[in-house]
Amino acid sequence: MMNLISGVNVTASALSAEQVRMDVVAENIANAYTTHGTDGTAYKRKVVSFESMLDPTGTGAQSVKVSQISTDSTPGPAIYDPGNPDANKDGMVQMPNVNLSTEMVDLMTASRAYEANLAVIRNARQMAAKALTIGH
Amino acid sequence: MSPIGLIDVSSMMRSPERVPSAAGASGTDPAGLGGLDPSSLAGLNPSNLAGMDPSTLGGLNPSSFAQTLGSIPGVTPGAATPATSDAASIAGGQPVSFGNILSNAINEVNSKMQAADAAKTQVLTGETTNVHQAMIAMQESSVAFGLMVEVRNKLVDSFQELMRMQV
Predict the structure, then answer these.
(1) Cβ contact (<8 Å) for A1 and B2?
(2) Where would you tag: which of A38, B35, B38, B162 has the fewest CB atoms within 10 A of its CB?
């Protein structure tokens, strides 16, 4: 199939990857105060890592994909809250290791990266459309 | 995606260019006429060309025209040869005509629009959340359609230019 907007596959893969990153940040923020995760302990924040791969369409360009979503095992703070059902016998509750400021910065980074890739697509489209006006 | 598509498009974009130059002021480029196969033109849009007498076009034999032009000093016919060999290697045996190349390109534009439509439907029905994929598919089909319209404009221009030819 002909491809009129060049490089669009690579950019599309980056858009998908940034979307995954934003999803992970959303999960972290949503669980910023979850003391009882699916495994019974406090929620552990997740970190997304990207890796490049050869563009499957065979252009030789390198597109990006999410290689893995790993868990940040840094211990979170413990706060004294004896009324909490998740408190241990000393009344200490293990909080998630989510730092809201860090997550907000991650969110902004993902958002800006998404915008940058959108700008690439917009410009590539404009270039193709301009090329069609040759001869006018 | 294949490189074939790109070559298709480039040869498409080159071919109509020659037609006006053949019929235009210089009137010395037989390649344009050679590339403009009367039969493929008739197959393109029968309704538009129905009023045109096929025998008139048929009487315009490109090869004899090229020979006539070749006898004129300073005129070298056959400038279209690289393009035709390109096209022949693309098709790999199947008969290559300008009409075939054109209809292949139109089919690709059609399939692009269908893909864009499918992506849009998937987003709207909640099957996928890849809004950007749908948008990209729509933009791509829009650019492809624009290219097709430009090629059609060129064809119509060249046809009108031919019709204006002094007889």
Answers:
(1) yes
(2) A38
Which residues from A are below 8 Å from B5, CB to CB?
A: 1-3
Helix (H), strand (E), coil (C) string for chain B: CCHHHHHHHHHHHHHHHHHHHHHCCCCCCHHHHHHCCHHHHHHHCHHHHCCCCHHHHHCCCHHHHHHHHHHCCCCCCCCCHHHHHHHHHHHCCCCCCHHHHHHHHHHHHHHHHHHHHHHHHHHHCCCCCCHHHHHHHHHHHHHHHHHHHHHHHHHHHHHHHHHCCCC
**Torsion of the alpha carbons at B49, B52, B53 and B54, rounded to the nearest 10:** -30
Amino acid at position A44, single letter: K
Predicted pLDDT of residue B84: 45
At A23, is the secondary structure helix, strand, or coil?
helix
Whether the CB-CB separation of A95 and A35 falls below 8 Å is answered with yes
Residue pLDDT, tens place only, B10-62: 444 444 444 444 333 444 444 444 444 444 444 444 444 444 444 444 444 44
User: Which H or E run contains A94?
Assistant: strand A92-94
